[in-house]
Design brief:
Alpha-D-Glucose-1,6-Bisphosphate, Chain A, domain 4; Cholesterol_transport; VASt domain-containing protein; membrane; sterol binding; VASt; 33% helix
């Protein structure tokens, strides 16, 4: 890893680093898109509901949804708002990097932020490498609870990336591109 990339990912934990038989931009375009089979399966596998996405404006867009919490305390579901920022959109040279900052309305959610970074890179031909990085940033110390929340967040992210990888492998590059094209036409 170059020093520049190392600095960019400082304080992040890498959760996924895999190659897929899919072009990088087709893979990026499949994510966070309602009605795309990849995203629809990811939502089901990760207990996401009521997902909405705004269009990009100045390299930023927002997602809103509810997520099942699966913990013994607090509400069973929580609303989440994600602000996605494009850090690098260089499709000509085979690279897209975005960062998703999560805000959740849940007990203790005001004490920390969860930030995910996605990196989609063209490897060669129809192959790409997808990397998923994660970090939690604590704004307030919460003794006893902090360790439990760290464990919960890491567990849920681990499940998320395993599910995402399974789903992506089910589809060919052509199937993903055809769905992207169908959905793009539907939007226009």
């Amino acid at each position: 890893m170059s020093k520049e990339v190392e600095k960019m990912h400082k304080d992040y934990k890498i959760m996924l680093d895999e190659e897929f038989e899919v072009e990088f931009d087709a893979l990026f375009d499949a994510f966070w898109t309602n009605d795309h089979p990849i995203w629809e399966e990811c939502k089901v596998m990760n207990d996401l509901s009521e997902f909405t996405a705004s269009p990009f404006e100045n390299k930023t867009r927002k997602f809103n949804f509810k997520v099942k919490m699966g913990v013994p305390f607090g509400p069973s579901h929580a609303p989440v708002e994600i602000t996605q920022t494009m850090l690098e959109d260089d499709r000509k040279n085979g690279k897209v990097i975005c960062e998703n900052a999560h805000k959740t309305d849940y007990p203790y959610a005001d004490t920390f932020d969860i930030v995910h970074r996605y990196e989609f890179v063209q490897v060669d031909g129809g192959k790409s490498r997808m990397k998923f990085f994660s970090r939690q940033e604590w704004r307030k110390k919460v003794p006893f609870v902090q360790g439990a929340l760290n464990a919960l967040v890491n567990h849920k992210q681990g499940i998320f990336v395993k599910n995402v990888a399974k789903v992506i492998r089910k589809y060919t590059n052509e199937e993903i591109k055809n769905q992207n094209s169908r959905l793009c036409t539907k939007i226009l």
